[in-house]
Amino acid sequence: MKQQEMKDKVVLVTGSSRGVGAALALAFADKGANVVVNYSQSQQLAEEIVKKIRKKNVEALMIKADVVEYSQVSKMVEDAISTFGKIDILVNNAGYYEDSTVWKMSDETWDKVININLKGTFNCTKAVTNHMRKQEYGRIINISSVVGQVGIFGTSNYSASKAGIFGLTKSVAKEVVRKGITVNTLALGYFDGGMLRRLPEQAQDMILKQIPMGRFGKLEEVCDMVLFIASEKASYLTGQIIHLNGGYYM
Predict the structure, then answer these.
(1) CB atoms within 10 A of CB 55
(2) Which residues contact 219 (CB under 8 A, 6 or more apart)?
(3) Residue 35: strand, helix, or coil
(4) What is the spatial distance between Cα 111 and Cα 108, in angstroms, rounded to a whole number?
């Protein structure tokens, strides 16, 4: 992809103060896009990402918003449009996990994971859709997980939330395609720098042995794929679940 291929585009990346989201925000900035950095907890981390983005000679807007609360999401979208005049690309990246076997899982644990991962994706998608429909252009990219395909012990809430994103993607894609909007999901395997490193070392070793490619993914590989999905080269791609997992399907 050319250096300024995203010049003058405006991208909103949810959960972009750290991990995969931060890497995506910086990758879009590298390609010339103006970036809305969303966070819900650490203002300091978000500020650091904004500083890095601005050093790339593009604009950045930092907005605190809980994706679970539609009123906050709606205001975030309004503020972004007020600042930049539009939103071209939405990356639904904000995510959360809290593991437990189903017989021990509390209602609160179930609800929190489902709300952040699935309802949050719905809220942000809903909030940008009317704007994108009016401008007759948009790219909505959802970040999901291989866990939503295969299921992992102790992750019924996380698996359900990530599998739900698959169905949401396919339905919304059909609803908005005639308005020049594409909707796709990138289902990630295990990547160095994401949630993987929060797992115990023994669990990481077990996962690594099950990946046919013999290594964890790199954040730049996620960025390259998201940038492609957001580009004009992928204008005929919609309603798809794209698997980036090194062959890990169990």
Answers:
(1) 11
(2) 20, 23, 191, 192, 193, 194
(3) strand
(4) 5
In this structure, which long-range contacts are made by residues 158-164, counting pairs with CB atoms below 8 Å and at least 24 apart in sequence?
Answer: 158/97, 158/98, 158/99, 158/113, 158/117, 160/114, 160/118, 161/113, 161/114, 161/116, 161/117, 161/118, 162/117, 162/187, 164/114, 164/117, 164/118
pLDDT of 195 reads 67
Domains of the chain: 10-240 (3.40.50.720)
Burial class (CB in 10 A: 0-12, 13-18, 19+), 201: exposed
Write out the two tokens for 160: 């359900």
Q: Name the phi and psi angles at 6, rounded to 5.
A: -100, 15
Catalytic (active-site) positions = 158
Cα–Cα nearest to 139, from 236, 41, 24, 31: 236
* CA 190/CA 76 separation, integer angstroms: 30
Q: How far apart are CA 85 and CA 79, in angstroms?
A: 9
pLDDT in tens, 100-123: 999 999 999 999 999 999 999 999
Which one, of 157, 176, 71, lies nearest residue 117 by Cα? 157
State pLDDT tens for residues 24-83: 999 999 999 999 999 998 899 999 999 999 999 999 999 999 999 999 999 999 999 999
